[in-house]
Every structure is written in structure tokens, then in C-alpha cells.
Specification:
Strand order of the largest sheet: 6-7-8-3-9-10
Pfam family, one: ABC_tran
Number of strands: 10
Distance between the termini: 21 Å
Helix content: 25-40%
GO molecular function, one term: ATP hydrolysis activity
Structural class: alpha/beta
Shape: globular
Protein name: ATP-binding cassette domain-containing protein
Largest sheet: 6 strands, mixed
Organism: Schleiferilactobacillus harbinensis
CATH superfamily: P-loop containing nucleotide triphosphate hydrolases
Keywords: ATP-binding, Nucleotide-binding, Transport
């Protein structure tokens, strides 16, 4: 289904509940420009749930999610959306190279790109180890490499900085900086608000049961405190 719109990515009237707990209720979000967006909210507020709804791992009660004017079906997600999830999606008995070759084959990606990403993300030293022998930080870098292989229009990164040593954080920060000049949309969830300030163009806040897109001059941490740590009046959600 095609939707006439000027946006690249759009969520319209999204509603979803889990075990009768409302997570999203008529939530809306419109992203008109490529770039890096931070997704912020307290633990358990529904950030990972949003990524799972976008990628059709969960189905909303109502609402639509579209990319370039086309509603995201499972086939469209496979072709146009990449998702860097947590390490539970990795197979412990396979090596990093096994994972990369499998994803490359599924998406018709040349093996040369595996070598390129391995160098960029500095996974070469452990690419031939089984996942069971990798550290948390090494698994994170492998997950990011897997998500980057297809060069998708929309890239979702769920807590990509978790478990990373300072050198790895710099690698991921430089990578996200490069996305600012690409034609892709990258949405990054993270509890590391200082790092989000460094790499994001705008911030998406999970507020009540909706989403609010904001450009925050005073920084993510200040805005986070205003929204989640202090009493407040109900906010108007921005599309």
C-alpha cells in the first residue's frame, strides 16, 4: 500500500498493548530528512517494542508504519530495514564470519563488503571465533556489522553502546557521524545520553503513550530530567 506523503519515515496512529498494558496509543512520528535520530525513554517504556513493531516482529492493534510512502510489510522490511538487536539473536556455535556470510548471501551482498566492514568496525581479530567465546563488546560490534551489511534505507540500533570499551565507543561514534551525510535514516536507542548528544540530529522521546520529536538545544540529559524525573503537565505529542 502506497501513502502519499513528503516524509521518508512515518508512524500514524500506532496503538499497541502487551498483557493489557498500553504501550502506544495513537502514536505519531514523521521524519522528513535523512540523519541520525536518538530514541530516549526510561527502562521498560517501549523503545525496543517500537523497533519490534517497525520490523514486524510485533503487530500493532492499529496504525500504519511507512517508509518512502510504502507501508512496511515483512517483505518490505527485509528489503529496506536493518535492525541491530541484542546478542540473543546470535548463534553461539557459529563464528562471526559465518554470521556475516549468511546475511550477505541472503541480501545479495558481495563478500568484499564483509572485509570492508570488518576493517571499519575492527572485528577482524575475532571474526573467526565462535560467538560463545566473544566478549559482550565484541558481540555488539558483530551485531552492528551484520546490520550494516545490506546498506538499508532505515537502520535501527537498540543500545549499540552497551558493553563497549572506550575504543569501541569511539569506533561506533565515528560510524554514526558518517551517517549524518548519507541518505539513510538511523534511529539509535541508548541510555548513554552524552553520546547521543554527540551523534544525533534530533531526539525522539517516548512520552506517555506517544512519541515526541524534538531538537534539544540544552542537551539530552537536561531534557530527560524535565520529562521523566520531575512532575510535569501532560505534553502535546508532535508528529
Amino acid at each position: 500500500m502506497f501513502i502519499l506523503t513528503d516524509s521518508i519515515f512515518q508512524i500514524q496512529n500506532l496503538s499497541f498493548a502487551y498483557h493489557r498494558q498500553v504501550i502506544y496509543d495513537q502514536a505519531n512520528l514523521t521524519l522528513t530528512d535523512p540523519g541520525v535520530y536518538g530514541l530516549i525513554g526510561p527502562n521498560g517504556s517501549g523503545k525496543s517494542t517500537l523497533f519490534n513493531l517497525i520490523t514486524r516482529l510485533l503487530r500493532p492493534a492499529k496504525g500504519t508504519i511507512s517508509l518512502d510512502g510504502t507501508v512496511l510489510t515483512p517483505a518490505r522490511v527485509f528489503a529496506s530495514v536493518a535492525y541491530a538487536q541484542d546478542s540473543s539473536v546470535l548463534y553461539l556455535y557459529l563464528t562471526g564470519r559465518d554470521h556475516l556470510r549468511f546475511v550477505a548471501k541472503q541480501h545479495g551482498v558481495a563478500r568484499e563488503r564483509i572485509n570492508l566492514l570488518s576493517d571499519e568496525l575492527e572485528v577482524t581479530d575475532f571474526i573467526d571465533r565462535r560467538v560463545a567465546r566473544l566478549s559482550l563488546g565484541q558481540k555488539q560490534r558483530l551485531l552492528i556489522a551484520l546490520a550494516l551489511l545490506p546498506e538499508s534505507r532505515l537502520l535501527l540500533m537498540d543500545e549499540p553502546l552497551n558493553g563497549l570499551d572506550p575504543d569501541s565507543v569511539i569506533i561506533i561514534r565515528d560510524l554514526l557521524e558518517a551517517f549524518k551525510t548519507s541518505d539513510q535514516i538511523v534511529i539509535v536507542s541508548s541510555h548513554n545520553l552524552d553520546e547521543l548528544d554527540k551523534v544525533t540530529d534530533c531526539l525522539i522521546f517516548k512520552v506517555d503513550h506517544g512519541l515526541s520529536l524534538e531538537t534539544v538545544a540544552e542537551g539530552a540529559e537536561v531534557r530527560y530530567a524535565e520529562l521523566y524525573r520531575h512532575p510535569r503537565t501532560k505534553l502535546v505529542h508532535h508528529a
